[in-house]
Write a structure and sequence with these properties.
The complex is a heterodimer. By secondary structure, chain A is α+β, with helices and mostly antiparallel strands. Chain A has four helices and seven strands; from the N terminus they run H-E-H-E-E-E-E-E-E-H-H. In chain B, helix 1 runs antiparallel to helix 2 and helix 5 packs antiparallel against helix 6. The chains are: A alpha+beta, B alpha+beta. Strand 1 of chain A pairs antiparallel with strand 1 of chain B.
Chain lengths: ~150, ~650
């Protein structure tokens, strides 16, 4: 390669750089479309379920009276609803402090073949200023409606 | 009265920034010589006034003066003093004042000491610096006045978010701002060099300490931020690809690229236009980062107040500065003469590949960070996380690390691979052995496996430049490079080990129950209520023993703060050289059982040791460079003095 003239050497480097950057762009765009995890409301999940095992986020209200702890003391079952559909969720872990029945939650995880949502993480409203974006967008009326439906 | 003094100082500083801009622009012509003479004093005065304004805000917070709106909203008289003093930057207005203060201090320093560049280039640089500064002054004075009064004053303040009441975090914003502002200095120098068409090795030597300094602060900021997220959030993870984390990673990637291309320009007078472009990109990434975390387009503890006006303001500033600089670059880049040439197989060649890989990584992180915002504009909500960032990033990180192991061994301008074949092949052979060994023994997943092997290659490759050299005669800058590169290997090893070998246990335990997690046996002795200055908590008393050794007591807590009301979990850690035991207490499971979450994380601490080594390497290089600069300066002064004598 050292036999190449300096000008050609420059061309080699430039083309390597160009190919790498275009490669990065193509790979990035392809991957981000495939790997992004989409946000579902319970009714979306019922109408148009994602493939089992695919990482998604499920957001809605925790139904009153649905929260149960299993005998192991760390696995909880509850139902997330939006007034139109209900999805059973199972989660093993320490629930966020502000996670209570009748409040909003965003569950990260995937759908099991039996229709249960297996959550790997729960995001609840943290404090007045910090809440999952999807919940912030839910209007007060929607929240009341969701709670009223589940009572 | 104190608040009014601070505000007045801020207005005066703004006026001086205007003068600095005017003088810098008009001073480019002979007729503006009078104004040009004012530029340096204006920059110094502006720095003093800003420092004074910031000092008054610190004083207001220390005294909890509740008649100032900012203090009332963010402080509380019962808060520990150290957090009162750190209060000014725990909120939007104060942190913007801190930003402009650091920036004007940098400007003042340049005006005081920098004599290497042609005077016109320096004037253009200070004018650019003032132009950037004016935007932030306007932002402060128009939409985020930190000194606004509240009438009547409330009886008590609202307090600081308890997640932020942590000594490590009190230092986090100033660290990152020093990094961002250092890059703004590099940006101003790049604009000044473009305006006066003076892209020379001298230019590279002048901006190198700023870039190095900025890069050290960013490295420290990211390392500390990662450790904070690790122990404070109680999730056991050290990097979440959260937009706010990416906002600090992107300027770091750009600064790392800039740092390496500046070295090429300083040593070899090559990569002129590329270095200028990186100077613009690096500061752009700081601005994009600030926009992301401060505008409220992404929610996080950083988005203090979601205020669309402020987001728009930052976006407008970003567009003016970055757009303007890019237009300037597009029109001027063609007129910058091509630098020195070099072959592919050379130090420069390796550094170009490093720069390309870093740019690709930057693009990938930027895309993943902005993609959710883009899709949301079309009504689709997504989040992008590790399944995207990890594999796609690795595609470019791995080749870059391979080049990192080889590049420092190459000579400038032209070299042959045959000369360094032996040590390089040895390093890669060890890497391959690690790869095969780990795969056969531990059956690790692909990414941690590659990480582990690359850590070995980089670890060996990074110390190879020391071979056959006398340590005493080694330039400090070279030693810094070796230390920083070795730090990369250490951090990489920690990441790979943590992701491959972490063990997690989640249990509901009664008093006296023992849980095994990896080599640890953890017994729940009791759960007690405890209280602090502004919180109460449930505290678990755990006794943990490593491989049957003497037990140590650790106490994770679930805390409830009352101002503002919020709950946090305080994890408790036991650190050994080969990893950490990480414990969290959750809630009461039923009558007599408590939820415990335990992790054994082998070598996880090496991630942050590595980060600290990288920063230390930067610091050594910075000291080395500054010492050389000082020596040159004294030699120059001596030569000038002798000439004066000869004339006399």
């Amino acid at each position: 390669m050292n036999a190449l003239k300096p000008k050609h050497q420059r061309l080699v480097l430039l083309s390597v750089a160009l190919v790498a950057l275009i490669g990065a762009a193509v790979l990035g765009i392809w991957a981000v479309r495939n790997q992004a995890s989409y946000f579902y409301a319970p009714s979306d999940l019922a109408a148009n379920p994602p493939a089992p095992g695919q990482a998604v986020r499920l957001g809605g209200m925790v139904e009153q009276g649905s929260l149960k702890t299993r005998p192991d003391g760390v696995t909880v079952d509850f139902v997330v609803g939006d007034g139109k559909a209900r999805v059973p969720v199972v989660f093993a872990g320490i629930v966020p402090d502000l996670f209570v029945e009748g409040s909003g939650v965003v569950a990260e995880g995937s759908l099991r073949p039996d229709g249960t949502f297996a959550a790997t993480d729960l995001l609840a409203k943290h404090d007045e200023n910090y809440m999952p974006r999807e919940l912030a967008d839910m209007t007060e009326a929607q929240k009341r409606e969701a709670i009223a439906e589940t009572e | 009265m104190i608040a009014e003094l601070g505000l007045a100082a801020l207005w005066l500083a703004t006026a001086l920034a205007g003068l600095q801009l005017l003088g810098g622009v008009l001073g480019q012509r002979e007729s503006g010589a009078d104004l040009a003479a004012l530029v340096r004093p204006a920059a110094v005065m502006q720095a003093l006034l800003c420092a004074f304004a910031f000092g008054t805000l610190v004083l207001l917070f220390a005294r909890t003066d509740l008649s100032v709106a900012l203090v009332a909203q963010n402080s509380h008289s019962e808060k520990p003093l150290i957090f009162k003093i750190a209060g000014p930057w725990g909120n939007h207005e104060g942190s913007m004042l801190l930003w402009i203060t650091v920036m004007s201090l940098a400007g003042g320093l340049i005006a005081l000491v920098e004599r290497r560049l042609p005077e016109k280039t320096l004037l253009a640089t200070l004018a650019a610096q003032a132009f950037v500064g004016l935007g932030f002054y306007a932002f402060l004075l128009v939409s985020s006045n930190p000194f606004e009064r509240l009438d009547p004053a409330p009886a008590q303040g609202l307090g600081l978010n308890p997640l932020l009441q942590d000594i490590g975090l009190a230092m986090h914003p100033p660290t990152l701002y020093c990094g961002y502002v250092g890059l703004s200095v590099a940006f101003s120098f790049a604009v000044g060099a473009l305006l006066t068409r003076q892209v020379t090795p001298d230019f590279a030597r002048v901006i190198r300490p700023w870039v190095l300094g900025a890069w050290i602060f960013l490295t420290l900021g990211i390392t500390a931020g990662s450790y904070w997220a690790y122990y404070e959030l109680g999730w056991g993870g050290w990097w979440f690809w959260d937009p706010t984390e990416n906002a600090s990673l992107m300027p770091w990637l750009a600064a790392t690229a800039l740092l390496h291309s500046v070295s090429v320009l300083a040593a070899r007078d090559a990569l002129r236009t590329w270095t200028i472009l990186l100077g613009v990109v690096a500061f752009s990434m700081s601005m994009v980062g600030t926009f992301l975390v401060r505008s409220g387009v992404v929610t996080s503890v950083h988005a203090f107040a979601v205020d669309p006006q402020r987001g728009t303001f930052i976006l407008v500033l970003l567009t003016i500065y970055i757009g303007g600089a890019l237009v300037l670059f597009a029109t001027r880049a063609g007129t910058i003469a091509e630098g020195e040439r070099f072959t592919v197989m050379s130090r420069e060649g390796a550094l170009v590949i490093n720069n390309v890989a870093l740019s690709a990584l930057l693009g990938i992180v930027l895309l993943g960070t902005l993609y959710p915002l883009l899709t949301e504009a079309f009504g689709v909500k997504v989040s992008v996380g590790p399944p995207y960032f990890n594999p796609v990033g690795a595609v470019f990180l791995m080749p870059m690390l391979a080049v990192l192991a080889v590049g420092p061994l190459l000579r400038w301008r032209r070299d042959s691979f045959a000369r360094i074949r032996l040590p390089v092949l040895a390093a890669f052979a060890v890497g391959l052995a690690v790869l095969l060994g780990m795969w056969l023994i531990a059956g690790m997943a692909l990414l941690p496996l590659l990480g582990m092997a690359m850590a070995a290659v980089v670890g060996i490759g990074s110390v190879l430049p020391l071979l056959g050299r006398s340590l005493r005669r080694l330039p400090l800058a070279t030693l810094g490079m070796v230390v920083a590169h070795f730090g990369v290997a250490v951090a990489l090893f920690g990441m790979a080990a943590d992701s491959a070998f972490s063990i997690e246990k989640l249990v509901a335990a009664r008093q006296g129950d023992t849980t095994e997690v990896g080599p640890w046996r953890v017994t729940l002795a009791s759960v007690e209520p405890v209280a602090g200055p502004n919180w109460t908590a449930l505290e678990a008393r755990l006794s943990a023993s490593y491989r049957g050794g003497a037990p140590s007591e650790i106490k994770p807590q679930a805390r409830s703060f009352w101002a503002p009301p919020q709950q946090t979990s305080e994890s408790a850690l036991l650190t050994r050289w080969n990893g950490q035991l990480y414990t969290v207490i959750g809630g009461e499971a039923d009558g007599d059982r408590w939820q415990l979450r335990l992790w054994w994380k082998p070598f996880v601490t090496w991630i942050w040791y590595g980060g600290a080594l990288i920063a230390l390497g930067g610091l050594l290089a910075l000291i080395g460079r500054l010492r050389t600069d000082l020596k040159r300066r004294t030699v120059r002064a001596r030569v000038a003095a002798r000439r004066m004598e000869a004339v006399a």
